[in-house]
Design brief:
This protein is α/β, with parallel strands linked by helices and about 260 residues long. The protein has helices at about 15-30, 50-60, 85-90, 100-105, 110-120, 135-140, 145-155, 160-165, 185-200, 205-210, 225, 245-255, and strands at about 5-10, 40-45, 65, 95, 125-130, 165-170, 210-215, 235. The chain has an 8-stranded parallel β-sheet, covered by helices on one side. Helix 1 (about 15-30) runs parallel beside helix 2 (about 50-60). The structure holds 1,3-dihydroxyacetonephosphate (13P). 1,3-dihydroxyacetonephosphate (13P) binds near residues 217 and 218.
Length: about 260
């Protein structure tokens, strides 16, 4: 079965609830044209989830809602944390885990990313598991081994049935927010190594169902080079997701 492409917007720490409402209204209006062959997802900050959900619900928009992070327990004394159960109630069907910014600024380890992915699956939320190498790792020629070990670690204890719906996002750290993209060939090479790892873990049938996204300065001007890549099933978009017309142009490229 052909994989359905996905364009996911990671808004990071941008947009107040009022600004998020405005951006969602624009996206939702543009999306009225219905690009049915692409899954479109927005991941605003926690504080805007409810506002975004209300706009999407009011417009009966097919745009899906996701979060950018989660804690691995369902409830309890974890000050400041947000549980999968809370995200579920707000209508999130996806959640990003293991973004390199979380690994860097919040010291998230592979074990924590795995705990988060499992907590999401337990709550019927699809994890978008991020992986990606630093420039030093790339220059040392260790990209594939580094990235595939992140993927393996994130999927420890995840059954084939659950893994099938999970999404992997390959985001080379040196390409995030820098305007410097991996060439489509470089991105494809790593995504193909990720696919091989998924085949090893879950067999060919399951691995061929799993979506792998590329992220890192993807924008309307370069997306067309990524579209034909056989192991890249869409994008996880930062900067260009904050401008409605750019984000919709990215969606259109995958229609
Ligand atoms: P940019 O598209 O701004 O490079 O960000 C990519 C990213 O980190 C998405 O999660």
């Amino acid at each position: 079965m052909a994989r359905r492409p996905m364009i996911a917007g990671n808004w990071k720490m941008n947009k107040t609830a009022a600004e998020a409402t405005e951006l969602t209204q624009k996206l939702s209006f543009e999306y009225m044209k219905e690009y049915k062959s692409v899954d479109v997802l927005v991941c605003p900050p926690f504080t805007s989830l409810r506002s975004v959900r209300i706009v999407l619900g009011f417009d009966k928009s097919p745009i899906k809602l996701g979060a950018q992070d989660v804690f691995w327990e369902d409830e309890g004394a974890f000050t400041g944390a947000i549980s999968p159960k809370m995200l579920k109630e707000l209508g999130c069907t996806y959640c990003i885990v293991g973004h390199s910014e979380r690994r860097e600024f919040f010291h998230e380890t592979d074990e924590m990313v795995n705990a988060k992915a499992r907590a999401l699956i337990r709550n019927n939320i699809i994890p978008i598991i991020c992986c990606g190498e630093s420039l030093a790792t790339r220059e040392a020629g260790e990209t594939a081994s580094y990235v595939t070990s992140q993927v393996r670690a994130a999927l420890v204890g995840v059954t084939a049935d659950d893994a099938q719906r999970a999404v992997i996002a390959y985001e080379p750290i040196w390409a995030i927010g820098t305007g410097r993209t991996a060439t489509p060939e470089m991105a494809e090479e790593t995504c193909s190594a990720i696919r091989d790892t998924l085949i090893e873990l879950y067999g060919d049938e399951i691995a061929q169902e799993m979506r792998i996204l590329y992220g890192g300065s993807m924008k309307p001007s370069n997306v067309k080079h990524f579209v034909p890549m056989p192991n890249i099933d869409g994008g996880l978009i930062g900067g260009a997701a904050l401008v409605a017309t750019d984000f919709i142009d990215l969606v259109k490229a995958y229609v």
